[in-house]
Amino acid sequence: MSRPKLRKVDGAKRKKERKRSKQALELRTSLFLNIPEKCCLCETEFDKKSKEMAQTWHIIVYEDRKVMRLTCPNCREKVDNAMEKINAN
Q1: Which run of H or of E encompasses 39?
Q2: What is the rounded distance in angstroms from the CA atom of residue 60 to the CA atom of residue 84?
């Protein structure tokens, strides 16, 4: 006596989903392996091994353009202030 199947398994759909997930993970991993070494605005050096820098610096990832931007706290504050002025007007 065989057991009835509780659900249908769509193998092709699962395979496509796994492939897409794997590609997305590879893209994100490659972006973080190639993290910039300087602030994109003032070119202050970024020490990848410093825990303090990792917690205070701001990283923006544009997946569609496959670009990563790194900004130091000082530049980030300037950008935020400029954006507030633009939004206020």
Answers
A1: none
A2: 18
The pair of structure tokens assigned to 14 is: 């699962």
Report domain extents, the chain. 37-89
Q: Is the pLDDT of residue 13 over 90?
A: no
Burial classification of residue 58, based on how many CB atoms lie within 10 Å of its CB (0-12 exposed, 13-18 middle, 19 or more buried): middle
Quote helix, strand, coil % in the chain, to nearest 5. 50, 15, 35
pLDDT digits 0-9 by tens, 27-50: 878 877 778 889 888 988 988 888
Query: What's the confidence (pLDDT) of residue 5?
Result: 66
> What is the spatial distance between Cα 9 and Cα 5, in angstroms, rounded to a whole number?
9
